[in-house]
Amino acid sequence: MSTPQELTAAPVLVYQQIPKQVSRKDFNRYIAPSLKRPIKGPPPKLSLYKIFNYILYVLHTGLQWNQLKPTRDDIVIVLPKDPDVSAKNMRIAIQERRNISIGIVITDTFGRPWRDGLAEFALGVSGFEGLLDLRGGEDLQGRELHHTVISVADELSCAAGLLMEKSAAIPAVIIRGYKYIPAEGSGKVLIRPAEADLFR
Length: 200
Hints:
CATH superfamily of the largest domain: CofE-like
Strand order of the largest sheet: 1-2
Number of strands: 6
Helix content: 25-40%
Strand content: 15-25%
């Protein structure tokens, strides 16, 4: 975090990048005055300060923060250092042992802006294209598709999540029947470019 810079007209807090956390002092001085209080619905159970830092946490980690509480042995659950590399290593190991061609998706659970409920999403992808680009094709009425890109990896993740269940300790499932496009694959292609991202 860079040193806060103040202008004579109004206080301004400048960061070189989105911080992982802001102090209560900085929040109250630089951020809270710009936030609008909701006029509908029940009051939040958490302070705006905590909510703001939780949002920063999720943006940086891609994880539900309540899943990272220490266990009785003071062990925490963390993401693979590189989910794509982990997915590739798993795919190669299975293919060598079973002599089959497969795709691998490493998933996690995530909350979505403006939508209630949690859904699975893809972190790492290997062996197939994570996006299905239908642009240039036609819909049922023969009109050209201009923006339709399907997040195949995320949709497969959701299907797997229904079978794995939340607390059933099922580490993996096998999905059959989807005609995927073989490719090296990467979960990074699912990340929206910064210039089109409202949160960056």
